[in-house]
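Notes to self after the Tuesday call (sharing in case useful).
The group wants a holo model before anyone commits to mutagenesis around the pocket. I volunteered. Ligand is zinc ion. Logging inputs and output together so the record is complete.
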Amino acid sequence: MKEYPEISLDRFDGENLQSAAFFLSHCHSDHMRGLDSVEFIDSLARGKPHVKLYMHDISAGLLLAIDRYADLGPHIVTLPTGEQHPIPIFDKYGKLKYHVCVTLLPAAHCPGSVMFFFEGHEGNVIYTGDFRFHVGEVLSLRPLFDSDKKLLTSIRSVYADTTFCVPEAKYIPTRDECKTAIVDLVSDWLQRTDIPGHSRIAHIFSRSSYGYEYLMMSLAKHFQCKVHVSQSQYYKYRNIPNLTRIITTDPLATQIHFCQRGAGNEVEGNYANAIREKLPCAREFNVLPNVLQIIPSVMYFTKSNVTPNEMLTCVEEKVVRVCYSSHSSYTELVDFLTHLKPQYIYPNVERNSSLTLQDVRQSLSFLECSSHGKENHMMKISVHQILGKSSSKGPGFLNLRTIMFPCLDSLLKLKLRLKLRSAMTIVGY
Ligand SMILES: [Zn+2]
Ligand SMILES: [Zn+2]
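Result:
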């Protein structure tokens, strides 16, 4: 981190091994590089007792459920969200250099995911990790905003999740909209009686290790049942009571399945090579069940512009893709940064595209706010650009319609219903 170079976040190799404090925002493999290396464990052991690895309690539970991270246990300090904690920063001789204050903020990305808000002599800095905030949601962060939604402090820098900082992702359905769509799909599927004698299963397929727990809990709650997961999935969740309550390893115990194959011990990884099977636990059934497969994903949809009425696509018979994201859309990211008014914005994520980190940073620079005097000017620029009058490489692809979400709600729901019906018709079940 530029302001506090002794601090490393979500990177545990190379030069970062010299750091005096480490922070893990969440347990996704792209944020854990070097975390299981001998070099990292050695650097912690050498730095004892000063050098620590800070994270949320749930992340520690997930991490320590994986055998090869067990050695990290003594070096982990877990922190709750919403409270200030002084972090001592020592030099390489073990002499105290300074303190920085950190507050963990919920990031709504996956279990245990947090942002880090640092306050110290070099200014206040927010590192978002991966996050999904809907428009206006940032205003509910009490350490940053008062009850009148007034920003309580000045922010020097935001290191932001820019996964979807692209024109195609200006709109992504909220998780609630997605949940409603999936509940409707599953509900309709389970109620059908056109093929008697076959049990019906709804299988939610994903290649990602974490990030679908919100859906698991929502479906378990709506249908008042548990959801099926594989043994290895159960193993990784075993330290999280909220999840162990609603999951089962008995495939016959429920019609809603989140089971994955190919997880093995790579429980924190993304199973890019995992074979997409209709139902990984199918061999457990005496008679093959009738399976509707639902694939929540967003990359499929952001290949072209995501629009409110295209959040569901039937890709083959009884296979439906649903646009579901644990990362903020472009509109949500702009909203988040607009409210925080940082002096500097640094992207965290480089997409596999022609855009470099510098391009992404440049595209967000209109949101940087070096002084209060510039603030109004910035707002004018942002509205100007949002109206679509900026260059094609800037954020001019937004328009006012996309930021006036409340006005879109009823239209969106209507279109969602229509789309749902048409998807069901196409599937032909
Ligand atoms: Zn992530
Ligand atoms: Zn299953």
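Two things stood out.
The first helix runs from residue 38 to 47.
Residues 264-274, 372-429 have pLDDT under 50 and may be disordered.
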